[in-house]
Write a structure and sequence with these properties.
Blueprint: H1 4-25, H2 29-56, H3 60-88, H4 95-123, H5 126-131, H6 133-151
Helix pairs in contact: 1-2, 1-4, 2-3, 2-4, 2-6, 3-4
Bound molecules: fe (ii) ion (2 copies).
Length: 153
Amino acid sequence: MADILQEIKKEHDEAREVLHQIHTARTKELDYLKELYALLTGHHRAEEAVAFPKVASYDEKGKELIADLRKEHTEAEDKMLELIRTMQKGAPLDLEMLQEIEGDVLHHMTEEEEDLFKKARQAFSKKELEEALPPFEDEEEKAKEKAEKQVGL
Ligand SMILES: [Fe+2]
Ligand SMILES: [Fe+2]
Protein backbone atom coordinates (compact mmCIF):
# COMPACT_ATOMS: atom_id res chain seq x y z
CA MET A 1 0.00 0.00 0.00
CA ALA A 2 1.22 3.48 -0.85
CA ASP A 3 2.24 5.85 1.92
CA ILE A 4 3.00 9.56 2.34
CA LEU A 5 6.76 9.14 1.83
CA GLN A 6 6.18 7.55 -1.57
CA GLU A 7 3.74 10.36 -2.41
CA ILE A 8 6.22 13.05 -1.30
CA LYS A 9 8.97 11.46 -3.44
CA LYS A 10 6.59 11.28 -6.42
CA GLU A 11 5.67 14.96 -6.09
CA HIS A 12 9.35 15.93 -5.74
CA ASP A 13 10.06 14.15 -9.02
CA GLU A 14 7.17 16.05 -10.65
CA ALA A 15 8.67 19.34 -9.40
CA ARG A 16 12.10 18.31 -10.78
CA GLU A 17 10.44 17.64 -14.13
CA VAL A 18 8.66 21.03 -14.19
CA LEU A 19 11.95 22.76 -13.30
CA HIS A 20 13.52 21.01 -16.27
CA GLN A 21 10.64 22.15 -18.48
CA ILE A 22 11.11 25.80 -17.45
CA HIS A 23 14.67 25.60 -18.76
CA THR A 24 13.80 23.99 -22.05
CA ALA A 25 10.46 25.77 -22.66
CA ARG A 26 11.77 29.02 -24.13
CA THR A 27 8.28 30.44 -24.68
CA LYS A 28 6.02 29.25 -21.90
CA GLU A 29 8.25 29.86 -18.89
CA LEU A 30 5.58 31.80 -17.01
CA ASP A 31 3.02 29.01 -17.38
CA TYR A 32 5.51 26.44 -16.11
CA LEU A 33 6.48 28.72 -13.24
CA LYS A 34 2.83 29.07 -12.24
CA GLU A 35 2.48 25.31 -12.44
CA LEU A 36 5.56 24.87 -10.24
CA TYR A 37 4.20 27.39 -7.73
CA ALA A 38 0.82 25.64 -7.48
CA LEU A 39 2.37 22.17 -7.33
CA LEU A 40 4.84 23.09 -4.60
CA THR A 41 2.42 25.20 -2.57
CA GLY A 42 -0.07 22.31 -2.46
CA HIS A 43 2.76 19.94 -1.61
CA HIS A 44 4.09 22.20 1.16
CA ARG A 45 0.69 22.63 2.87
CA ALA A 46 0.16 18.85 2.84
CA GLU A 47 3.61 18.19 4.33
CA GLU A 48 3.02 20.85 6.97
CA ALA A 49 -0.42 19.54 7.92
CA VAL A 50 0.15 15.80 7.78
CA ALA A 51 3.85 14.89 7.91
CA PHE A 52 5.58 17.62 9.93
CA PRO A 53 3.75 17.77 13.30
CA LYS A 54 4.58 14.19 14.33
CA VAL A 55 8.24 14.56 13.31
CA ALA A 56 8.55 17.90 15.13
CA SER A 57 7.23 16.41 18.35
CA TYR A 58 9.34 13.23 18.08
CA ASP A 59 12.59 14.69 19.42
CA GLU A 60 14.75 17.83 19.52
CA LYS A 61 16.45 17.05 16.20
CA GLY A 62 13.06 16.55 14.57
CA LYS A 63 11.89 19.89 15.93
CA GLU A 64 14.92 21.70 14.50
CA LEU A 65 14.62 19.96 11.16
CA ILE A 66 10.94 20.88 10.79
CA ALA A 67 11.55 24.53 11.74
CA ASP A 68 14.19 24.65 9.02
CA LEU A 69 11.96 22.97 6.41
CA ARG A 70 8.98 25.24 7.17
CA LYS A 71 11.19 28.31 6.74
CA GLU A 72 12.41 26.99 3.38
CA HIS A 73 8.81 26.48 2.21
CA THR A 74 7.95 30.11 2.92
CA GLU A 75 11.13 31.41 1.29
CA ALA A 76 10.65 29.35 -1.88
CA GLU A 77 7.00 30.38 -2.20
CA ASP A 78 7.83 34.06 -1.68
CA LYS A 79 10.56 33.95 -4.33
CA MET A 80 8.43 32.08 -6.88
CA LEU A 81 5.52 34.45 -6.35
CA GLU A 82 7.73 37.50 -6.72
CA LEU A 83 9.16 36.14 -9.97
CA ILE A 84 5.66 35.39 -11.29
CA ARG A 85 4.36 38.86 -10.36
CA THR A 86 7.33 40.56 -12.04
CA MET A 87 6.80 38.54 -15.21
CA GLN A 88 3.07 39.26 -15.17
CA LYS A 89 4.03 42.92 -15.35
CA GLY A 90 5.94 42.15 -18.53
CA ALA A 91 9.50 41.51 -17.37
CA PRO A 92 11.48 38.70 -19.03
CA LEU A 93 12.47 35.65 -17.01
CA ASP A 94 15.14 36.61 -14.47
CA LEU A 95 17.51 33.68 -14.97
CA GLU A 96 19.57 34.46 -11.91
CA MET A 97 16.45 34.38 -9.73
CA LEU A 98 15.30 31.17 -11.37
CA GLN A 99 18.67 29.53 -10.64
CA GLU A 100 18.41 30.64 -7.03
CA ILE A 101 14.91 29.19 -6.64
CA GLU A 102 15.96 26.00 -8.38
CA GLY A 103 18.97 25.59 -6.09
CA ASP A 104 16.84 26.19 -3.01
CA VAL A 105 14.09 23.79 -4.08
CA LEU A 106 16.46 20.99 -5.12
CA HIS A 107 18.39 21.31 -1.87
CA HIS A 108 15.16 21.26 0.13
CA MET A 109 13.86 18.13 -1.58
CA THR A 110 17.12 16.25 -1.04
CA GLU A 111 17.10 17.27 2.62
CA GLU A 112 13.58 15.86 2.96
CA GLU A 113 14.33 12.63 1.12
CA GLU A 114 17.29 12.04 3.41
CA ASP A 115 16.68 13.62 6.84
CA LEU A 116 12.89 13.98 6.91
CA PHE A 117 12.24 10.46 5.60
CA LYS A 118 14.61 9.00 8.17
CA LYS A 119 12.93 10.83 11.04
CA ALA A 120 9.43 10.12 9.72
CA ARG A 121 10.17 6.38 9.71
CA GLN A 122 11.00 6.70 13.41
CA ALA A 123 8.07 8.96 14.32
CA PHE A 124 5.39 7.11 12.30
CA SER A 125 4.65 3.40 12.21
CA LYS A 126 4.40 1.80 8.77
CA LYS A 127 0.62 1.71 9.14
CA GLU A 128 0.45 5.37 10.16
CA LEU A 129 2.46 6.38 7.09
CA GLU A 130 -0.12 4.60 4.93
CA GLU A 131 -3.12 5.96 6.81
CA ALA A 132 -1.81 9.50 6.45
CA LEU A 133 -1.99 9.32 2.65
CA PRO A 134 -5.68 10.23 2.12
CA PRO A 135 -5.53 13.34 4.39
CA PHE A 136 -2.24 14.30 2.71
CA GLU A 137 -3.84 14.13 -0.74
CA ASP A 138 -6.93 16.06 0.42
CA GLU A 139 -4.85 18.85 1.89
CA GLU A 140 -2.63 18.96 -1.19
CA GLU A 141 -5.55 19.22 -3.59
CA LYS A 142 -7.28 22.00 -1.63
CA ALA A 143 -4.12 24.10 -1.29
CA LYS A 144 -3.09 23.53 -4.91
CA GLU A 145 -6.46 24.73 -6.18
CA LYS A 146 -6.17 27.85 -4.05
CA ALA A 147 -2.65 28.54 -5.32
CA GLU A 148 -3.77 28.07 -8.94
CA LYS A 149 -6.43 30.74 -8.47
CA GLN A 150 -3.90 33.01 -6.79
CA VAL A 151 -1.62 33.06 -9.87
CA GLY A 152 -4.41 32.87 -12.44
CA LEU A 153 -4.17 29.30 -13.68
FE1 LIG B 1 9.01 20.43 1.89
FE1 LIG C 1 8.66 18.04 -0.09
